[in-house]
Amino acid sequence: METKFLEQFTELLEMEQPVKLNDIFREYENWDSLAYLSVISFVDEEYGIVIPREEFGKMKTVKDIIDYIAANS
Amino acid sequence: MASFTYTNVGIAGLAAAVPKQIYRNLTDNKNFTIEDAGAIVEKTGILERRVADDATCASDLCFAASEQLMNEMGIDRAEIDALIFVSQTPDFRMPATGIILQHRLNLPKSCLAFDINLGCSGFVVGLNLAYSLLQQDSVRKVLLLNGETRTKVYSFKDRQTGFLFGDAGTACLVDKNEKYGQSWFVLDSDGAKSDYISIKSGGYRYPSNPESFIERERENGRIYSDEQGYMDGAGVFEFVITEVPKSIKRTLQFAGVEKEQVGYFVFHQANKFMNEHLNRKLKLDADKVPFSLQKFGNTSSVSIPITIVSELNEKLSGVNKILISGFGVGLSLGTAILTIDNPWLGKISEI
Questions:
Q1: Residue B244 in contact with partner chain A when CB distance is under 8 A
Q2: pLDDT of residue B73 exceeding 90
Q3: A36 shares contact with chain B (CB less than 8 Å)
Q4: ipTM for this prediction
């Protein structure tokens, strides 16, 4: 799942470089409120999980998102 | 569970009015660069919206829609036994604008008139109330008016709200007839999220004062005063994608209606990104889900009826059931499945 997620995440945020597991996603230049909505929407569609805001607020790295999905699937 | 079933009550006709002035999101908002505006417009899908001038209130838009509806349908005004005005931009804090409209529209003094303070769920909730009033033998026709001048509420300097909202008014005539068959409503409230969409000042909890009118820069560079609308867009999005699909499934189940029997799904026009997410999540055929937000933006409680008038004109003959769902400020959520019989739809008037 990790590899696929990283590819999808790279595409979703229109990143020039592939995203990596330990990237701190809020530090991406194109991270903003619209990017946040895209991620929430993508995870809901792909994995059927709506990540609550308070949970998302605790996440720092791309891996944190993957771990949350794995723990809640 | 606030669920309701009605028999032989339905929508006889619908009309809409919008201000003449068009506001183009890409070029008219000078607080943002065209690149920033473009990114927002791409996500929201709202290219333009209508803006009422200082002299035009929500009630004026509803008045124009009502006059068109009653004149063109040839309605005897003496038969209108109730008028419901749904708005969060009334003429005055008191009296209720609905009562002023009873007089302006030459409706009889024997007509019940009042206001409902609801936003995006307001057409569904108002319609439920109209249907319930018509359970009385002595109530013959109900006029449901939805009007908003939301552009006067939100700061054009706030990137979350400054591109979304538009002004419009609709008039919906509800009456009794055996041709209508059954209709179903399911309504929910979630007051724990009352601060997700709100205007802090101007009521009695936080009365207006010189400070409340000062525009302030908030988190993420958003600029608005306490007299202007605030929206927690992420919180609303989370609520909508979690709760609206459930509400729709519950309503279909309650009504015993299959998704395939529904001719059109008319949703509150929040923004393209959120509405398209709902469509995909509910696996709806795009042809069955009309959009009007590209032209009129998010018009709060007016968005469902104006979408029907604007997008479904001449498309409803032969359609037996439509599903409507409104969700937002409150937070408040309502879904209904309406059995219809080719309602009269007016051409949108501009004032």
A1: no
A2: yes
A3: yes
A4: 0.81
